[in-house]
Specification:
- The complex is a heterotetramer of chains A (196), B (344), C (542) and D (418).
- In chain A, helix 1 packs across helix 5 (153-163), helix 4 packs antiparallel against helix 5 and helix 5 packs antiparallel against helix 6 (166-195).
- Chain A has a 6-stranded mixed beta sheet with strand order 2-3-1-4-5-6, covered by helices on one side.
- Helices cover 41% and strands 18% of the residues of chain A.
- Chain A has 6 helices and 6 strands, in the order βαββββαβαααα.
- With 196 residues, chain A is of the alpha/beta class.
- Chain B has one domain (30-325): Thiamin diphosphate (ThDP)-binding fold, Pyr/PP domains (Rossmann fold, 3-Layer(aba) Sandwich), CATH 3.40.50.970.
- Chain B is 32% helix and 12% strand.
- Chain B has helices at 49-64, 77-82, 102-115, 129-134, 137-146, 197-203, 217-228, 243-246, 253-263, 288-292, 308-325; strands at residues 69-73, 94-96, 122-128, 150-156, 208-213, 234-239, 269-272, 275-279.
- Chain B has an 8-stranded mixed beta sheet, sandwiched between helices.
- Chain C is an alpha/beta fold.
- Chain C folds into 3 domains: 36-116 and 444-478, Fumarate Reductase Iron-sulfur Protein, Chain B, domain 2; 127-220 and 358-421, FAD/NAD(P)-binding domain (3-Layer(bba) Sandwich); 225-353, 3-Layer(bba) Sandwich (FAD/NAD(P)-binding domain), CATH 3.50.50.
- Helix content of chain C is 28%, strand content 17%.
- Chain C is built from 17 helices and 22 strands.
- Chain C has helices spanning 36-40, 47-55, 59-67, 73-79, 83-87, 99-112, 135-146, 163-166, 175-186, 201-208, 238-246, 264-275, 296-304, 402-421, 473-480, 494-498, 525-529; strands spanning 9-11, 26-30, 127-131, 150-154, 191-193, 212-215, 221-222, 235-237, 256-260, 280-284, 308-310, 313-318, 322-330, 336-346, 349-352, 356-357, 371-372, 375-376, 389-391, 504-506, 513-515, 535-539.
- In chain C, the strands form 7 sheets. A 5-stranded parallel beta sheet of chain C has the order 5-4-3-6-19, sandwiched between helices.
- In chain C, helix 4 runs antiparallel to helix 6 and helix 6 (99-112) crosses helix 15.
- Chain D has helices spanning 7-17, 32-44, 58-70, 81-86, 88-96, 121-125, 139-156, 181-187, 214-243, 269-282, 300-307, 328-335, 357-368, 382-395, 402-409, and strands spanning 2-6, 22-25, 51-54, 75-79, 102-107, 132-135, 160-165, 173-177, 203-205, 251-254, 261-265, 287-292, 294-296, 312-317, 320-321, 325-326, 342-347, 375-377.
- In chain D, the strands form 4 sheets. A 7-stranded mixed beta sheet of chain D has the order 3-2-4-5-7-6-13, sandwiched between helices. A 6-stranded mixed beta sheet of chain D has the order 10-12-11-14-17-18, with helices on both faces.
- The chains are: A alpha/beta (196), B alpha/beta (344), C alpha/beta (542), D alpha/beta (418).
- At the B-C interface, helix 1 and helix 9 of B face helix 16 and helix 17 of C.
- Strand 2 of chain B pairs parallel with strand 9 of chain D.
Chain lengths: 196, 344, 542, 418
């Protein structure tokens, strides 16, 4: 089972992101489960959602305690929420930012993981470019597909188009594809650096 | 307006305060030692109009009563964001029971105070528009007709925002909500429905009925103060924009409320014993379009497939209010203080 | 009281444990922006600042704030052409704030209450020669004295004031006002030498042992043009004419006076002529009213006093008691061109008001000071091509107004101060301009501008009584309070009041406010509802 | 002082002796006589200080009581049947907030079909609300239970419902020994609220509690009811010490010592059962009866102690869970876990159907002979039921069968309904 935890703020589409990821996995014939964590917080408050992917039926309903990946939609949460709590030592981290882990003050964290498992992606910029609105969730899903290889870009794009009707879906799918390319290049570089 | 305009210091009648105003002309909110009846740390959305309206109203009531206010709160956003265990934002005695019974609970509080001879302590019951015009309507009407000594405040954000923006009987026509989607030939909420609760309250002949918005603090505070000068049932209806439900920018909460009044869509007035005694005149008459365009819930009226017919319909509603209440300055003034001699 | 039910009943105010500042992606920050009036003021006055003091009715504080930059509020309040009012954001609401009228009120208040300028600074040991006792020279003197520098102020005229005395008629600037405000500067301790014509600036500087010189010699020579004229034609220039009037030596002009030109000096000359007994005072100007450089209010007052205008006309010939004028028309580019239509007018005298030139003879012996197009060339700090020699006012390229000259005086004083102390002139960083878009004008009360009363026209005809009268205290206060305080917090409590999260702390009178970032969710209402644009939202950094 | 008095009147007089400060009510048969009488006493000043509020619904009635109680006033209301269901949200809320409200429930059936007569369906509908539910056997006990109810409620900060059979008790005129004011005053101290809306000492009452503490809140409410299991008998003892009268307590046992068959029931039917038991005893049958006074909290231990020696237990109740069976019987069965008692569920007296001694005798006779099914509906008209069942099989149409049943019975019954 592969478990993903999304961090963002109320109103940023965190729940939608988990849902789309689960649909992408479902489309690949896998079992998937997406669910939110509801609090009394409102727009702007830190919120989380979860997605589980497995090849078997997923029966558990407990919250995700030890995620295999953490996706951070809003980088301003870094000093405010325990974002990486319970994350597997071989887990993935994907942060929506144009900066590096070092610039974010996360050098320590970075040093504890394999380089190919941690990535930052300027998803908001990509969304602004392709979608015209600062909603990074579709782009992050594309980036996640590239980073984790848990789902294919094709499935992610399809799930996005299913979720957002018409041209909005198309634009979001393009954002996902662009982010996928960014992270693919990144992982290739890491791989090259690793072999050198 | 209940309050005479302050003549004149730069922003005398409009801004929250001013370094040069006399104490009597200062708003409660300008006082560094105001109660903050609802305090920081509440979990309302950014730019929440209801959090603001509640503090405005209750702080004013606290001043008017020399800090002797007990509040009853219906279920809803205000209740949920202010009192999730283990924290409460309130600094006043506060009781939450149910969604539809805040007026009746307040009746009980008032009865208990009366039986204990505590006529110095005053009761405020508050709810959103759902708890007022819909599920709480029966108990509210009962509280009105018994003339219980309660000021009921409706924080009207025109929908069920707590549950995810569904339609209430206070949702304006054409507005998108989760239960009045923008599909079909008449997108959004239906025309010709909804309750005008201030007028219904007036029909109960209660001592005092007023409307206000979070955009005019002086007016709002004056109305709370005026309301607290009466005994018996009173009603204050405050328009509180909801950035989430209206799709307005969080920094435009006050601006949007102001335009609601300046367009005439939300008439601001007060009435005593069933008779309108004053209205807040429109200062800068604004076409409804300007108001509507700030809110995504009306976005379907503009853009690629605009609906000027619906905008016109809404403009007609505003015009009707302007005519009904005489909201324009140059209109013949209605008789002021034309109040009956009935005393409580 | 632990007998309360668990979880259901809570202690008040406990939510302060929940720091909602973590929700914020943008933070409000208080800023100061440059008000457009300040930006436009040639004298560099902090207009918004002194209006702020005046708003509270503390006129002495307002006066003191004003004279930090400009020692002549009563003069400026009369003769300044107030570009501040043109720039005023309130123009877009109703009408500009009557800054000039309030300035005059404060100036007169200062005189009436004998308020003192700031004292001279402790002696610096440096000596400065100021040539010319007009607005530039006097302003420089004032600022230099405050910096502790010794000043010798020389002027070729018999009295101090330069063009303020010899160019501006008394009905615009009463002499008692002029004298009183100049006297206050001189009282700071100034070595004044009048009737002193500097002939060689280098020599004067060396002999006096001055560390620096400020040339503020003005533009005292009236421009002349060649107009065919009969022998007995009476033609004089406006500068000399006004100068003589100021010295109680008014020339005889006759009954019908024609003034040629379109500037303020032309109007001054025509209106002065009326007061000297001319029954007709006609201004002939080759362009249109719209193109006239004179200020509108001056023109209105002149017309009110019976001065008449001949637009689109040039004088072709001056004879004994007539002149010939030619009608002009505007070509496609808006320039006047001849029409060949002529008209004869009766005229006993013609006053030429076609501009002024600077007398730079005192520089001739040296020749090192660079001069171009009849004016002295200066660096931004007003230093000329010769080290230690500064110039300002009408003698350098700029608008020739008293206010610009006052500003030059201050600027030169700062330049000189830096020079004599051997340090670089600090450049003051300008704040971002507070444009109209920064304001939320809803909050300003509707208030039309107060009009200044004027002397009844019939009483202006034969004397030099002041035409424009001052504001009453009540009106001045009203007018001051029309100021929107653009870009500068004036403690209206809006931010404190409109925050849904009580995250703005009010620190008390004059201490303004502080954002409590523990709770600020960054909604931005405070910035949006700040009337004067003194809050900005900046993205939250990690 | 012993008076021949209507049950409602006796309750009203006793409630007044308890000095309630806020009384609110909305009329519904068969509760009306109680609140009419209290209202009159307030109006004439006999009950003072007291605010009597005529509200617009039962929902408002309980809400007013909530507000008044939270403000430190002793609060009382009364209702029945549909009224209880209309206020049910507030009923749960009062318990959740721990407000010591006392309410009389004049037990009545629940529609549809609308029916104003007695059974216990209404009380059962709020069985799990967190209220203490005490069932009165007689009007004397009904009156006495109110005094004990206020004391119990205020000691534990729980709301208490005194259930008395509608019409059968409320409208029955019989001898009731009304207490003296001084007696009640000495038994019932002034209300000292555990939490109160006080401007000097403000608190927030009624917070939203999430998953992190909700279960604990509920468990604590349960503990409070368990505490009530101890307080109810001792309050009854104290009452007996003061008045010499045994009222209240958890259960009443009658001729059970040597009984091999014990009947269990609640409310006024206990009297008829006792008569039937006496007759069966004369016939040589070892039969007794246990009356449950405290239905919530349910006195499992006391019930077990009273029943465990019996071979057969007959639980006769005026309500049932449709699709399942007896409600009280289920509770009794849980109390008797691990014993060899055979339990029979008998549903009787629904919608005011009279429970006659004769029927009961017949029932007990059959019990004695081992002829009883596990679930029996006493005095059910099998012909009517069978005809309707056949008709339903024929048409397969869903819908109310009450009209058909009435038609079969020959004449529609017309009665005053609320």
């Amino acid at each position: 089972m592969f478990q993903v935890r999304f961090h963002g703020r109320g109103g940023q589409g965190v729940v939608t992101a988990a849902e789309i990821l689960s649909v992408a996995a479902f489309d690949e014939g896998r079992h998937a489960q997406a669910f939110p964590s509801f609090g009394s917080e409102r727009t702007g408050a830190p919120v989380v959602s979860y997605c589980r992917i497995d090849d078997r039926e997923i029966r558990t309903r407990e919250p995700v305690m030890a995620p295999d990946a953490v996706i951070v939609q809003d980088v301003t949460l870094i000093n405010q929420v325990d974002l990486f709590s319970g994350l597997s030592p071989v887990g993935f981290i994907l942060i929506n930012t144009s900066r590096s882990f070092e610039e974010l003050g996360l050098a320590d964290l970075y040093s504890r993981f394999a380089p190919a498992r941690l990535a930052t992606c300027p998803a908001t910029d990509i969304a602004l470019e392709h979608v015209g609105r600062p909603l990074p969730n579709a782009a992050l899903l594309g980036a996640f597909a590239a980073l984790s290889a848990q789902v294919s870009l094709k499935s992610v794009e399809k799930a996005i188009r299913d979720h957002f009707a018409g041209p909005v879906g198309e634009r979001n799918a393009r954002a996902a594809s662009a982010a996928f390319d960014v992270i693919t290049r990144f992982t290739q570089e890491v791989a090259r650096a690793g072999t050198n | 307006m209940t309050k005479r305009p302050i003549h004149f210091y730069q922003v005398g009648s409009f801004a929250v305060g001013n370094r040069l105003l006399s104490d009597g002309d200062r708003t409660v909110q300008s006082d560094a030692a105001r109660t903050n009846s609802i305090d920081s740390g509440h979990r309302a959305c950014q730019g929440c109009g209801e959090a603001l309206g509640a503090r405005y109203a209750l702080d004013a009531a606290m001043r008017a009563t020399r800090n002797r206010v007990v509040a009853v709160n219906a279920t809803g956003c205000l209740e949920v964001f202010s009192t999730p265990y283990p924290e409460t934002s309130w600094h006043i005695p506060w009781l939450h029971s149910l969604f539809g019974n805040a007026p009746a609970v307040a009746t009980g509080v008032a009865a208990a105070l009366r039986v204990k001879g505590r006529d110095d302590v005053r009761v405020i019951s508050q709810a959103g528009d759902g708890g007022t015009v819909d599920i709480g309507f029966g108990t509210l009407s009962g509280m009105f007709e018994r003339n219980d000594d309660v000021l009921f405040i409706c924080y009207d954000n025109e929908g069920y925002m707590n549950t995810g923006v569904q339609r209430s009987a206070a949702t304006p026509p054409a507005a998108r909500t989760a239960t009045t989607e923008v599909v079909g030939p008449q997108p959004g909420n239906t025309f010709g429905q909804g309750k005008d609760l201030p007028r219904i309250a007036m029909a109960h002949d209660v001592a005092y009925v007023a409307t206000a918005t979070v955009a005019d603090l002086h007016d709002l505070e004056a109305k709370v103060e005026r309301a607290m000068s009466f005994r018996g049932a009173r009603y204050l209806h405050i328009l509180v924009p909801c950035p989430l439900g209206w799709g307005s920018a969080s920094n435009e909460t006050i601006h949007v409320a102001r335009l609601a009044k300046e367009t005439g869509l939300f008439p601001v007035f007060e009435a005593e014993y069933g008779v309108v005694t004053s209205v807040s005149k429109i200062r800068r008459l604004t076409p409804v379009q300007e108001y509507l365009m700030l809110q995504r819930r009306f976005a379907h009226l503009f853009g690629k497939n605009p609906r000027p017919d619906i905008v016109t319909h809404l403009q007609e509603m505003a015009n009707r209010n302007i005519e009904r209440y005489g909201l324009l300055e140059d209109e013949v003034a209605r008789p002021r203080h034309a109040r009956t001699e009935v005393q409580v | 009281m632990n007998k309360r039910p668990f979880a259901i009943t809570l202690d008040v105010g406990s939510s302060r444990a929940n720091h909602t500042g973590s929700w914020r992606v943008e933070r409000p920050v208080y800023v100061e922006r440059l008000p457009p009036c300040n930006d436009a003021c040639p004298a560099g006055e902090n207009i918004q600042g002194w209006l702020y003091e005046a708003e509270s009715g503390d006129y002495a504080a307002a006066w003191h704030a004003l004279v930090q930059e400009n020692p002549f509020p009563a003069i400026m309040g009369r003769i300044c052409f107030h570009p501040c009012e043109t720039a005023c954001n309130r123009v877009k609401v109703d009408e500009a704030v009557g800054i000039n009228a309030v300035e005059r009120f404060l100036g007169d208040y200062g005189l009436a209450h004998r308020l003192s300028l700031p004292p001279a600074g402790p002696p610096s040991g440096h000596r400065v020669l100021v040539v010319g006792a007009g607005p530039a020279g006097l302003s420089a003197t004032y600022h230099l004295r405050r910096m502790g520098h010794e000043v010798r102020l020389v002027d070729s005229a018999a009295q101090l004031g330069g063009m303020m005395r010899y160019g501006i008629p008394a009905y615009r600037l009463p002499r008692d006002v002029l004298d009183a405000e100049i006297a206050r500067v001189i009282a700071m301790g100034v070595d004044v030498q009048l009737n002193h014509n500097v002939e060689d600036i280098a020599r004067e500087r060396d002999e006096g042992g001055f560390d620096a010189v400020f040339l503020a010699v003005g533009a005292q020579l009236g421009k002349r043009v060649d107009i065919p004229a009969g022998d007995s034609a009476k033609i004089l220039d406006a500068v000399s004419f006004l100068h003589r009037v100021a010295e109680d030596d008014a020339p005889m002009l006759g009954r019908r006076v024609v003034v040629y030109g379109g500037g303020d000096t032309a109007l001054d000359a025509a209106r002065t002529a009326r007061r000297l007994g001319a029954t007709e005072a006609v201004i002939v100007y080759r362009r249109t009213q719209e193109q006239m450089p004179a200020h509108g209010e001056e023109l209105e007052q002149a017309l009110g006093e019976g001065v008449t205008m001949r637009w689109l006309s040039t004088i072709n010939q001056v004879d004994n008691d007539t002149i010939m004028i030619e009608k002009m028309r505007l070509n496609d580019e808006g320039f006047p061109e001849s029409t060949g239509e002529f008209e004869q007018l009766g005229a006993d005298a013609v006053v030429l008001a076609l501009g002024q030139e600077t007398d730079l003879s005192l520089l001739e012996t040296d020749g090192r000071v660079r001069v171009r197009d009849g004016v002295v060339q200066v660096e931004p700090d007003l230093m000329t091509s010769v080290r230690g020699v500064f110039a300002g006012g009408d003698a350098v390229p700029a608008n020739r107004t008293a206010t610009v000259a006052v500003g030059h005086g201050k600027k030169a004083a700062r330049g000189i101060d830096a020079y004599v102390r051997g340090v670089a002139l600090e450049s003051r960083a300008k704040h971002e301009l507070a444009t109209f878009e920064h304001l939320n004008t809803w909050y300003y009360s509707d208030a039309e501008r107060t009009q200044r009363p004027e002397l009844e026209k019939v009483r202006r005809q034969d004397n030099f009584e002041e035409v424009v009268l001052g504001l009453t205290e009540r009106n001045a206060l009203f007018e001051a309070r029309r100021c929107m305080s653009c870009g500068n917090c004036f403690e209206c409590d809006n931010c404190f009041g409109v925050c849904p999260d009580n995250a703005v702390m009010k620190l008390g009178a004059n201490a303004k406010y502080e954002i409590d970032y523990d709770f600020c969710k960054g909604c931005g209402i405070c910035a949006h509802e700040c009337p004067c644009g003194a809050i900005t939202m900046v993205p939250e950094l990690i | 002082m012993l008076e021949q008095i209507e049950g409602s009147r006796a309750v009203a007089e006793t409630v007044a002796l308890c000095r309630p400060e806020v009384v609110c009510a909305y009329p519904i048969s068969p509760q009306t006589h109680i609140i009419e009488a209290v209202g009159a006493m307030v109006k004439e000043g006999r009950l003072s200080p007291c605010e009597f509020i005529n509200v617009e619904s039962e929902f408002a009635a309980m809400s007013v009581a909530i507000g008044a109680s939270a403000t430190g006033a002793r609060s009382y209301t009364a209702t029945a049947s549909q009224g209880l269901l209309f206020m049910i949200e507030a009923v749960y809320n009062a318990a959740g907030l721990g407000l010591p409200i006392v309410m009389t429930l004049a037990n009545r059936a629940i529609g549809a079909p609308i029916n104003i007569w007695n059974d216990h369906s209404d009380a059962m509908a709020v069985r799990d609300s967190g209220w203490v539910q005490l069932f009165a056997e007689t009007n004397q006990e009904a009156a006495d239970l109110h005094v004990q109810a206020f004391r119990l409620a205020e000691e534990l900060s729980v709301p208490v419902m005194v259930c008395m059979d509608g019409f059968i008790l409320t409208h029955a005129v019989e001898g009731v020994d009304l207490l003296e004011q001084s007696t009640v005053d000495s038994f019932l101290p002034p209300y000292d609220p555990r939490q109160v809306l006080d401007v000097q000492n403000p608190v927030s009452i009624g917070a939203m509690v999430g998953p992190e503490a909700f279960e604990e809140v509920r468990y604590l409410a349960h503990l409070r009811q368990l505490e009530a299991l101890e307080r109810i008998p001792s309050i009854a003892d104290a009452f007996e010490d003061l008045t010499g009268r045994r009222s209240g307590g958890l259960i009443h046992s009658y001729r059970t010592e040597d009984a091999t068959t014990i009947v269990v029931a609640m409310g006024s039917v206990l009297g008829t059962i006792k008569d039937a038991v006496d007759i069966r005893r004369e016939a040589g049958e070892a039969i007794g009866v246990v009356g449950i006074t405290s239905f919530r909290p349910f006195p499992s231990a006391a019930v077990r102690a009273a029943l465990e020696h019996a071979e057969q237990v007959v639980v006769l109740e005026k309500a049932f869970s449709i699709g399942h069976g007896g409600i009280l019987a289920t509770d009794v069965a849980m109390a008797l876990r691990g014993t060899d008692c055979e339990i029979h569920e008998v549903v009787a007296g629904l919608g005011g159907r009279p429970i006659t001694r004769q029927s009961l005798e017949g029932l007990f006779y059959r019990v004695g002979r081992g002829e009883l099914d596990s679930l029996l509906f006493l005095d059910l008209d099998a012909d009517v039921v069978n005809r309707e069942v056949e008709r339903m099989r024929a048409s397969r149409h869903s819908g109310p069968s009450a009209e058909n049943v009435l038609r079969d019975l020959g004449e529609p019954r017309v009665g005053q309904v609320s």
